[in-house]
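Exam revision sheet. Question 4 asks you to relate a sequence to its structure. Input first:
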Amino acid sequence: MEPEKDQIVPVAVDEATWAKYNKQYVLRSLWDPDEYIRQVRAHFSGQIRKWRTETIEQLQHQKSQYYSSSNAEMAESVEKLLQRLEETSPAGPVIPPSESPGLDATVYYRIEILKNTMKNEFWDKPAHRMNIQAVLDAYRSGELKAPHGYVSYWFKGIMVRGPAPDTIDLSEAVPRWVQEYGGGSHYIESVQPPVPQPSYT
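Answer key, structure tokens:
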């Protein structure tokens, strides 16, 4: 399924490039590409937020100034910061190399969150994995979208409600799902922003 018009489309990167990225920057770029591109990170002083391109241009200018003034040590320090800035954060939303192109940025964001969730021992149980894998499959197929703030409810690998912006009373819903589908585990897929937010420094 094609991304909606007027959205910033994530671009594919290779494994080597992906491995260099700070994944908090990646998640932030996927969560809100427009905001990420407007305010990618603070100026290298850590005080003033700048566009990524502006920050890089400033670093390049300062590097040239330091070299021309024979202050090689400061120039090298700026060069290292510039390289780190360019290598560890994408210029915009990127597609994880393990995923296929063509999905919305927020869907890739949730896919990455869920892949990390499955590495947690708490979720490493067949009943939990069934639900999370079902959510991943739905995202990857384009069946499930990821509007900000929306919630969907899953039981035994089936989406039993949502996605919707409101929540439900689980004390009432779970017994009903057990009666309808038999014993199992429920999972709440909630589309929320990255926690913690990256500092952009």
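Marking note for examiners. DSSP finds eight helices and seven strands in the chain.
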